[in-house]
Amino acid sequence: MRYTTLGRTGLRVSELVLGAMTFGEQGGVGAPMQECRRILDAYAEAGGNMVDTAINYRGGASEEILGELLAGRRDRFVVATKYTVTRDSADPNGGGNHRKNLRLSLETSLRRLRTDHVDVYWVHIWDRHTPIEETMRALDDAVTAGKVLYVGVSDTPAWVVARANTLAEWRGWSPFAGLQVPFSLVNRDAERELLPMADALGLSVTAWSPLGGGVLSGKYHAGPSDERTRLSRDTISERDLGVARVVEEVAAELGVTPAQVALAWVRQRAGVLPILGARTVEQLRDNLGCTAVTLAPEAVTRLETATGFTLGFPADFIAQTRSWVLGAGALEPHQPRSSA
């Protein structure tokens, strides 16, 4: 497993992140404690060191399980968790990105994780009712107190993230080092604004649902099975099934699994780290195999063509008018920075 630094920090994180959303059987399809242990051990043996969870995953069981599994080896891992989602739906201040919820959520997560600090603390989702200045200052206070080392943001508009980091830069607060977004061959929306913004600001991107909710693993296209799944095949669009078929074709030609091809496509984007959310150790080991998969440019083009994705306005318009606007001064489009 290769390593890179998280954003513009010196923190080394592995190129694949282990998602602990599957840790626990509460609330649907998930993994029991012993399987979680096997998953974490296999991930660590492969060289992985970053584990991502949240205060609300499995009703809190994910953090509790992770805290138990990390006993005696916590410092060897980069532990990341999130806050925003309500701790108590009957409490008006039980959720959101304001200072009160941040403080109470962080104390709850630290207790469950059995640690005195979180390595990366994510804002889980944009709360339009809390000024971003309040959130950034409260996060910086948590960093100053030593309870958080680095901060990141998930599921938030690009303009909000850019404003937040500009404020942090001007005021000497801790800036966001990472961005977490959904990104896969069936959901490329982040390419429009979020990934270019992350590249420009030097943020690492952790990609959740890199298999499109399992659609790109091939299990839905194969027809009915006894395996428990989060989606019903009838709810998956023909467009997404068509993308999955192309993934399977490329996988067959390379002699690898569809999941490995889909994850390899996400990995080939500089600065993007896929989050692996496995329910069994076998699934995890298959996913880890993506590090050995190299996609030729022809395969990448074939996969991307199947998605029918376009950047839309204004990116497409700007690209189309580049030579008209700049004439002889027109340059090739900016290429994202290479990963470390």
TrEMBL record:
<feature type="domain" description="NADP-dependent oxidoreductase">
    <location>
        <begin position="15"/>
        <end position="305"/>
    </location>
</feature>
<protein>
    <submittedName>
        <fullName>Aryl-alcohol dehydrogenase-like predicted oxidoreductase</fullName>
    </submittedName>
</protein>
<dbReference type="InterPro" id="IPR036812">
    <property type="entry name" value="NAD(P)_OxRdtase_dom_sf"/>
</dbReference>
<keyword id="KW-0560">Oxidoreductase</keyword>
<dbReference type="GO" id="GO:0005829">
    <property type="term" value="C:cytosol"/>
</dbReference>
<dbReference type="GO" id="GO:0016491">
    <property type="term" value="F:oxidoreductase activity"/>
</dbReference>
<dbReference type="Pfam" id="PF00248">
    <property type="entry name" value="Aldo_ket_red"/>
</dbReference>
<dbReference type="InterPro" id="IPR023210">
    <property type="entry name" value="NADP_OxRdtase_dom"/>
</dbReference>
<dbReference type="InterPro" id="IPR050523">
    <property type="entry name" value="AKR_Detox_Biosynth"/>
</dbReference>
